[in-house]
Amino acid sequence: MHETGVCRSIVETVERFALAGHAKRVKTVRIKLGEVHDVVPEILVGAFEWMARGTVAEGAEMVIERIPFTVKCELCGEVYRLDVHDERTWDCPACHQRAYHLHTGREFLIDAIEIENYAPGETDDSASRLERLQAERRRSASDLAVSGRRPAGAPSVPLTGRAAAAHPLQPTSAPARHECKLNAM
Ligand SMILES: [Zn+2]
């Protein structure tokens, strides 16, 4: 499904950004989504909630702003909404000609990531989590290259239901050292 692939890269980008910014957790991820894109916002939100589990972005709210499909008249500069299914909307309402290019609606980007930082006195482990994340990604990439299979621990992506096992990125006390050994394999 289109949304899950897109969502995976959103979660990865949010994680890298948040941990590099010493985030304790991510509060909100704001997405701009143009109407041209064949992405269902509800499915994207559901996929994000699921894929963010066990990461610094777990529990973050995804807010999607739909950007309307508009075109700009090449003759007079008028910007207007166009419905591809309704030819009556294709002519410029100002000069009544039909010469336009896409103005808005192609956007698909992370507009803002709002994070919560550690309070003074709290242990900031974001740097070590970022390191683990990068090591995990490298290992996943090499696993994929060798076996061509999904790396162990990377689940297929149902849009409902709970993750069965703790995500390897979940910060825990003991396994950090253990994971270094794994990395060296
Ligand atoms: Zn015009």
Give a short overview.
This protein is an alpha+beta fold.
List key phrases describing it.
disordered C terminus; 4 helices; 185 residues; alpha+beta; binds zinc ion; three-stranded antiparallel β-sheet
Descriptive overview:
With 185 residues, this protein is of the alpha+beta class. The protein has two domains: 2-68 and 105-184, hypothetical protein PF0899 fold (2-Layer Sandwich), CATH 3.30.2320.50; 69-104. It has helices at 2-20, 41-51, 126-147, 175-184; strands at residues 23-34, 61-67, 70-73, 79-81, 100-104, 108-117. It has a three-stranded mixed β-sheet. Strand 3 (70-73) and strand 4 (79-81) form a beta hairpin. Helix 1 packs across helix 2 (41-51). The longest helix has 22 residues, at 126-147. 16% of the residues are buried. Zinc ion is lined by residues 73, 75-76, 78, 92, 94-95, 97.
Side by side, the strands of the main sheet go 2-1-6
Helix content: 25-40%
What's the overall average pLDDT, rounded? 80
Bulk shape: elongated
Structural class: alpha+beta
Task: Just name the CATH architecture of the largest domain.
Answer: 2-Layer Sandwich
Calculate Rg over CA atoms: 21 Å
What is the total number of structural domains? 2
Q: How would you classify the quaternary structure?
A: single chain
The SSE order reads HEHEEEEEHH
Distance between the termini: 33 Å
Question: Could you give the count of β-strands?
Answer: 6
Tally of alpha and pi helices:
4
CATH class of the largest domain: Alpha Beta
Ligands bound to this protein structure? zinc ion
The CATH topology of the largest domain turns out to be: hypothetical protein PF0899 fold
Largest sheet: 3 strands, mixed
